[in-house]
């Protein structure tokens, strides 16, 4: 039975890559750069995104919100007058724990791709499976909250390895935690040497300018490598 | 393709239930009560467990640690001289995001079941798939950290609905967060009316006695309903 499961997973990943390539083609055709934003539940993805989008001057951004159920995050983003589509993954028993390329593809017709410079895909909160499924993105960001502890890169190495940028969030809480930031950074470096790391607090706004600049430059970087 | 995926999931859940029933039979035969401990990554499961196990007088406990990779948590539990087995789920590409009944079954021969009153199975940190896979347990606990926000029961309803006990952890951080405890409790009640809820801080020890008593009484409750 175990062998059967592994085989199914490999087939699913093959099919996913085919559809991710089709998404990639459509994104390039529309001239939109795409970022896949991932984290554990409650790490602060949506709040960071609200902060960034509130003043992303000169970059026309859209958002695709992935959640098992509900549209709370999409409602928050829509309040900023940013084009947003909510994708719910609940069709299965307990819902899919990640977005895959086909789910993303099903949402593309509801987004004004040709009017966007940047599309942010906020994945389902999960440190395992989202890292396994490419969706056609240019860049991947993972958000790691300091409240989650220093050991997460060693426990979920693929997620930390799959990203161009690791955002360490909720740093306003550092004075109140038994948390060793140096140890987290060493653990990130152990699984993804040379990864870009930013320290942020979505609550106080610290570090958000740096994240905004990084996001705003994705379209230029994508064009440069296209 | 989507229909195929759903079919595989249903088959996998059928097979899982068959093996969960076999685990259940073995647990009953050995006279050990079993709890499935679940949460998002970094909610504090292992630290709570360390606190509880350090003085679980009169109850012979063992632990099964589930992680994608590494044995850090098992090492922490072993330091308390508690029988512990580490299960790693990394055989797939990025690793399985949950424990299933067959993975648990594969570890049973390495545990002295007949010498235990209570087996705690610490699941992979994830709020989606662990709730879909029964492993033969008597009770399910989920730990929700206040740093994760009030919206999690509405976003991950199956996880909150599947548990007999919801532990709200890290309450020592409440003074430093924009967090409305009443709203979280209302959201828990909306998806799992009447669920038992406990407030804890693994860091300060607040609420840990109540959790320890609840865990210590599982063997008696399991016998009463057997």
Structure characterization notes:
2 copies of one chain form a homodimer. Chain A has 226 residues and is α/β, with parallel strands linked by helices. Chain A has a single domain, classed as 3-Layer(aba) Sandwich (Rossmann fold). Helices cover 40% and strands 18% of the residues of chain A. Chain A is built from 9 helices and 7 strands, in the order αβαβαβαββααβαβαα. Chain A has a 7-stranded parallel beta sheet, with helices on both faces. In chain A, helix 7 links the parallel strand 6 and strand 7. The longest helix of chain A has 29 residues. The radius of gyration of chain A is 17 Å and the shape is globular. The N and C termini of chain A lie far apart (43 Å). The N terminus of chain A is likely disordered.
